[in-house]
Amino acid sequence: MENLKLDGSAKTPTVNFDGSNGVLELKGRSIPENSIEFYKPLNDWIDKYATDPKPQTIVDVKLEYFNTSSSKCILDLFKQLEKLNSGNTEVKVNWYFEEDDEDMEEAGEDYQAIIDLPFNMIEVEEI
Amino acid sequence: MEQVYDLYKKLEEKNVLLSFKGMVTSELLTTILAIMESKMEHLDENPKVKKKVFNILVECLQNLYHHIDQDDIVHVRNEERSALLMIAKGPINYEITTGNYMKSEDVQDLESKINLVNGMDKDELKAYYKQVLSEGKMSAKGTAGLGMIDIARKSGQPLEYEFNPVNDRTTFFSLGVKIAE
């Protein structure tokens, strides 16, 4: 299947969903006024990937900022992956946050509490 | 012309870094965020504070943007589509102030929403945020009903507000958010 690659902008993250190795990366800032429009192609790609996934799927979330509009879309993305996890791939989430960024660390913990997927919290110096 | 100097002095007294009054568009939000980022960079602001101010500013601006982006916009007079934004850096706090017109019939809902989050401590806000996030539905314009909760949670201080009735139909809503350094 084709990979999904989107360049980041002032309000949207860089997307690198690679179907050949099962690594899905979201990086940068996600602060569009209306996130539904932006996240729709990502949901569609995961739907397609779900038909023939790799044995292991790694989700790398490396966000510097995200707004509340995106928070709901990110939750829906995780819910989609949660369903995928009960099928024929093992899904793991790596949640990156910058040192001292308690808000981003807490946001990862919030998702971890809602979503039934293994979360790996990774503190880095800079995203 | 002396009002110009008066206005300037008032803004100076309040340590205003940036102020804007007018129509709120998506492009304007991008520009204001870029200006504030470079200002805070220039002030050599602590990364933690910078992130909090940026995050809260995004939510405040998008509240203004979505409020104005209404279906019934055609019935609204031009000046009612415009909003006010001020960002000040005082000795102990950053302060973001916004002002916008809203429908008087929505005042009660908004006031009880603000009072609800103002009455919550850190843990209660975290639990409430998670509850609304996981149960809440998204509106067509992409709002999740999480803005005020997120602002209160990140600022860690009660939200200040005022409603000034303009006429039967319209009310001016002012919101003040303090972010401790």
Count up the domains of chain B: 1
Order of helices and strands of chain B: HEHHEEHHHEE
What is the share of helical residues of chain A? Answer: 25-40%
Looking at the chains present, what oligomeric state does this protein adopt?
heterodimer
| Strand content range of chain B | 15-25%
Shape verdict of chain A: globular
Secondary-structure element pattern of chain A, one letter each = EEEHEHEHE
Q: What gross morphology of chain B would you assign?
A: globular
Indicate how many domains the architecture of chain A comprises: 1
Number of helices of chain A: 3
Described by strand count, sense and barrel closure, the largest sheet of chain B is:
5 strands, antiparallel
Total DSSP E strands of chain B: 5
Structural features, described:
Chain A has 127 residues and is an alpha/beta fold. Chain A has one domain (4-124): Transcription Regulator spoIIAA. Chain A is built from three helices and six strands, in the order βββαβαβαβ. Chain A has helices at residues 35-49, 68-85, 102-114, and strands at residues 4-6, 14-18, 23-30, 56-66, 90-98, 119-124. In chain A, α1 packs parallel to α2. The termini of chain A are far apart. The mean pLDDT of chain A is 95. In chain B, strands 1-2-3-5-4 form a five-stranded antiparallel β-sheet, sandwiched between helices. Chain B is globular. Chain B has helices spanning 2-13, 26-42, 47-68, 107-118, 122-135, 147-155; strands spanning 16-23, 82-89, 93-103, 160-165, 170-180. Chain B has 181 residues and is of the alpha+beta class. Chain B has a single domain (2-180), classed as Histidine kinase-like ATPase, C-terminal domain (Heat Shock Protein 90). Classes of the chains: A alpha/beta (127), B alpha+beta (181). Chains A and B meet through α1, α2 and α3 of A and α2, α3, α5 and α6 of B.
